[in-house]
Each structure stands twice: as structure tokens, then as C-alpha cells.
Amino acid sequence: MSRRVRVPLALLAVVLAETVVFSQVGGRLGFGWAAALVLAGSLLGLSVLKREGLRAWRGLRAAVDAGRPPGRAVTDGLVGLAAGLLLAVPGLATGVVGLVLMVPPVRGLARRAVERLAQRRVSSAVAGSLFGPRRVRVWAGRPDQADGVLDGEVVEPRH
């Protein structure tokens, strides 16, 4: 299925999920309380967007000024901005997902997932300049199976 089909279907699924969640919460708490929760979540999301945007910019600048690869600051900022955006979008389900992304262990898992995705999508040279040298694990085979071949990855030269 192409991206041109998946994105609209995903957006439709989100709208349907938000409608179901809002009607369920509204049925239990009342429409006014459900609307107040949506409004509070959106206001919180706007605040988080501002804070995370500034934090991401400062982290990027600090990494560049220190001569460190900026990848971690960038991906952490992206996860924070995604959490803020999910909170800012009116809806209870997206708000809960945004809040969960703000929890430090979940945020760390999401950051590592974004880094892995980025490293797979860009060349080795770009990934190295963004995230620093990769760490690889090398397992030695049994001596009786040694065939003089070492599995590895070709790293593109930096220019």
C-alpha cells in the first residue's frame, strides 16, 4: 500500500478513535468535562511545544558548539516536539499518547527508535556525523569454524 493511501487512512483512523473516546468520556463525565479535558490538554500541548522547541534548539546549539554529533539532541527534540504536538491536537486519545511520550523511560525508547530509523534511512557518513561512530558487537565464532571471514559493514569515507 502506498504512502498516498496509508496517510489518509491513518488520519481517518485517528479521527474515528478520537470520536469514540470523546463520546465514551463524554457519556461518563458529561460533555462539559470532556470538552474541558480536551481544552486543557491542548493548552498543555502548546506549552510543551514551546518548551520542547526551545530545549531542542539549545541542545542542538550546545552539541554543535562542543563539537559533538548533534543527533541525540535532535532526536530527543523531535520526540519532545511530537509529544507536544500530540497534546496540542484537540483530542483525548492523542493527548494520552502525548503524555505517555513525556514519561522519561518511554521518551528514551522513542528516541532510540527514531535514531535507528534515521540511521537506516541515511548513508553511513551522514549517520556518523549525526550520531557519532556506531558501536558494533563482534562475536567470535568457535575456533573450529574459523574460515578467515569477518562479517562487517562497509563505512563510506568522509569527505
What does this structure look like?
Helix 2 packs antiparallel against helix 3 (71-88) and helix 3 packs across helix 5. Helices cover 74% and strands 0% of the residues. It has 6 helices and no strands. The two termini are 37 Å apart. The longest helix is centred in the N-terminal third of the chain and has 36 residues, at 31-66. By secondary structure, it is an all-alpha fold. The mean pLDDT is 84.
How far apart are the first and last residues' alpha carbons, in Å?
37 Å
* Count of individual helical segments: 6
- Give the CA-based shape: elongated
What is the overall pLDDT average? 84
Rg computed from alpha carbons, rounded to a whole number of angstroms = 22 Å
Helical fraction equals: over 70%
Q: Could you tell me the number of beta strands?
A: 0
Order of helices and strands: HHHHHH
> Poorly predicted ranges (pLDDT <50, ≥5 residues)?
none
Structural class: mainly alpha
Approximately what portion of the residues adopt beta-strand conformation?
under 5%
Described by strand count, sense and barrel closure, the largest sheet is:
none
Which key terms come to mind for this protein?
159 residues, mainly alpha
